[in-house]
Amino acid sequence: MKEISMEFTDPALLPIHEKLASGRRLDFEDGMTLYRSDDLHGVGRLANLVREKNCGRDAYVVRNEHLNYTNICINRCVFCAFSRDQGEEQAYTFDLSDAEDRLRARLHEPIREIHIVGGLNPALPFSYYLDLLRMAKEIRPEATIKAFTAVEVEYFSRLTGLSVDEVVGALREAGLAMMPGGGAEVLSERVHRKLYPKKIGPARWLDVIRTVHGLGVPTNATMLYGHIESLEERVQHLLKLRALQDETGGFIAFIPLAFHPENTRLSHLKATGGIDDLKTIAVARLLLDNIPHIKAYWVMITPSLAQVALSFGADDLDGTIVEEKITHMAGARTPTGMSMDEISHLIRSAGYRPVERDAFYNPV
Ligand code: V47
Ligand code: SF4
Q1: pLDDT in tens, 116-131
Q2: Apex CA 106: angle with CA 309 and CA 328, to 5°?
């Protein structure tokens, strides 16, 4: 890595630059130094060095579609504005024909990735999920089905009495090709107890993902930041993901998820700001040296900031989406979807080259 003469207003970044230049791995203390630094541009330039070494000026985008099949969920995490109890106002579940109508409504678009996730709804049998996958695959054979988080897969295992291996085997046979990165939240027992006590905790999330990767199914990884977690817990989270990736190599992309407090039981908290959002992307790019892609998820951080994030370590803007519910029910003011033209314009006007990709980052 060149550019040894890079200047920093924060001298604490110099040894980190030297480490990167000599190919050494950053550690916990480096992560904390990066997070604590007030030299945002310095941190961003370091992340950009790695980003440009990995993929030059390419910025990825996918034509995708989200299907949130139910918002009924037994977990009712404290930070979630999307979930409802059975029978509560705004509770919904798509039956198979609702889901099919939604997918058919966009058949004129060359969608490459269908992202299917939902709450844990006890009224749905395991066959529902298999039917959902089969239906999606039949309607859109050319698209990759990215479905169900580790939380859902673990729930299916408890629901059926099947092992996680068997559940994933059945889902795969029905059309699942990869899994999204949700449900990791912050991999900290303290945050687990306080914010998502009914949902699987850090150890189990990592365990399920280890098993899924072991079966050859790749996944993404996320971190929900900007609520009660400490910077130490964020850095530890990233290092836990990095350690698992050393073992399995199964993570494709990391997506930092900026907490949206509105309509949640944490509505007294302030939303994350641009500085924290950019720093989190940059620190992730620097610490996660073994995860190929970092997504700037425009739904959560706005299209304008996602554009800037391309020079702070991000190499992917996710996709067109069209109907996003989880963040919008928590007060997001961003659009619910963007056209390929709009996203390509954001990328080009930031000085990058838009690369339309499939779910596995192959150019299409
Ligand atoms: O797991 C819940 C988070 C996740 C809120 O893998 C919230 O490509 C912000 O995982 N404010 C779902 N976030 C989204 C997700 C995702 C999104 C885009 C791409 C990919 C991918 C994955 O959203 C949940 C939870 O961690 N979440 N409530 C909230 N109020
Ligand atoms: Fe359920 Fe997921 Fe919302 Fe938690 S974040 S309540 S698991 S839908």
Answers
A1: 999 999 999 999 999 9
A2: 45
